[in-house]
Backbone:
């Protein structure tokens, strides 16, 4: 069954969606079969992969409430080997609406368990919203590990200890296998001395859990979603694409070592 | 009683906290008495204003659950005329914990009503988390108007219609006076053609609700919080500070006109 990674950080705008889309694309480019689960009501991952409204009829909300099996909600993307379960508009109400749902924290985990034998992926990346509520909790309970994008900015350091505590609590109460897959530094700007300070702080805090690959701030990365494409398809040679390719190979080396 | 503005946008990292801190500072600098309510569990506004742990014992969580009156939770900041009700760590659990609270959407509104005559401010700015859940709902119910920071990036456009629908629903169900105070474009980068495209789209969508003042991407703005200061105190002459001063004067002209 697939290795499931939750791409999570409650700080907003740190590059969760961008990392989910482009790391998934880089993994798919080397032949891994990859699924993205768009668990963010904003649906940026679905849009950033160019999904038309017609492909966004059934999605993660339907899987959460048990109205659709995982396999029935999977749609292909323009990237070979990469599929997605999209976010639909009704996901926005899920946090408040589904408070009384049975086994509410296990809905995604149960959906993957029920899908065994009906889907065939090597990796699943779950794009989480910027909060540690019901949706992110579902991702952490279903995941094998957490990939933490961390923007090289001062405010981004603030929520880290809260995120780590939450991961520990989920491991104790719901999902004993949950680990930190790694921390990836994003939007690193070599002209800005703050980037270096934050990067040094994070490496001091997390040690070798921090990937060597650092994703640079690169305007092509932020342009790509307006063309409905991952940056690897929009501009393969740019520094952002090259960094995500490096990150994918570093992740695969890490996986092979375990 | 004070004019209450909710600084809200469920998209993450668009400059909500940065706008709350620096617009508040610019208003305080021209003699307005300003209060910031830090409703974001990350507590970035409290940290960005240099609050020590000792000043963060009572906060918005205590006000929400009725354990502290608003006046008792207000602490001064290093900026004359600017005070804050800080965020404390227990705010992180509020969304899930307080689901069954009586008049749960009106907790902040009721606290301001009860505080009449005990606090004396011209403006209150409420810094909201990147979600449209219980905390942001409380801010929208208590507010006179919503200030929407909007990052000049493609993904930032996606959630706008959802935010507008939420404001309309709050106006119909809970708070008939709620209006849009204005939309402020943030992190505008004149070297990036995407910034212009997004700005043009937003002006087309919102018309004159969009402030003329545009906040440029400026590294001094992101450095200031690591010194526990608003950028106006960290580097008054930089383009970020000047833009927030312009925004404050534009807002005050708007207020005088009504
Ligand atoms: N390396 C990069 N260089 C330049 N821009 C980037 C980079 N990575 C992400 N961005 C841009 O920064 C913004 C925030 O990134 P993104 O939306 O991926 O973050 P997020 O953590 O998913 O946000 P949210 O918390 O709202 O879900 C987006 O507009 C994106 O295009
Ligand atoms: N004009 C600007 N120029 C450069 N950096 C900026 C600017 N405005 C904000 N930033 C930086 O961008 C990051 C995001 O801004 P901020 O934290 O204020 O957004 P937010 O909307 O409050 O985020 P969240 O959704 O997590 O609450 C911060 O690191 C901040 O320092
Ligand atoms: Mg996202
Ligand atoms: Mg904030």
Residues:
């Amino acid at each position: 069954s697939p290795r499931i990674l939750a791409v999570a950080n409650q700080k907003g705008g740190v590059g969760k969606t961008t990392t989910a889309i482009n790391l998934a694309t880089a993994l798919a480019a080397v032949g891994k079969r990859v699924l993205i689960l768009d668990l963010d009501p904003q649906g940026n991952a679905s849009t950033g992969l160019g999904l038309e409204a017609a492909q966004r009829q059934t999605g993660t909300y339907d899987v959460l409430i048990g109205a659709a099996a995982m396999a029935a909600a999977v749609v292909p993307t323009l990237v070979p080997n990469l599929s997605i379960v999209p976010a639909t508009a009704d996901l926005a109400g899920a946090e408040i609406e589904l408070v009384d749902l049975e086994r509410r924290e296990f809905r995604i985990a149960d959906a993957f368990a029920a899908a065994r034998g009906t889907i065939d992926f090597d990796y699943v990346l779950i794009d989480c919203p910027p909060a540690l509520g019901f949706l992110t909790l579902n991702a952490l309970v279903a995941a094998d590990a957490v990939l933490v994008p961390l923007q090289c900015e001062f405010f981004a350091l603030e929520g880290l200890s809260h995120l780590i505590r939450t991961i520990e609590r989920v491991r104790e109460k719901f999902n004993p296998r949950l680990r930190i897959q790694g921390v990836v530094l994003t939007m690193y700007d070599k002209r800005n001395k703050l980037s270096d300070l934050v990067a040094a702080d994070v490496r001091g805090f997390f040690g070798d859990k921090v990937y060597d690959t650092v994703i640079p701030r690169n305007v092509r990365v932020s342009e790509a979603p307006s063309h409905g494409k991952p940056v690897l398809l929009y501009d393969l040679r740019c520094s952002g694409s090259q960094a995500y390719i490096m990150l994918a190979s570093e992740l695969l080396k890490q996986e092979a070592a375990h």
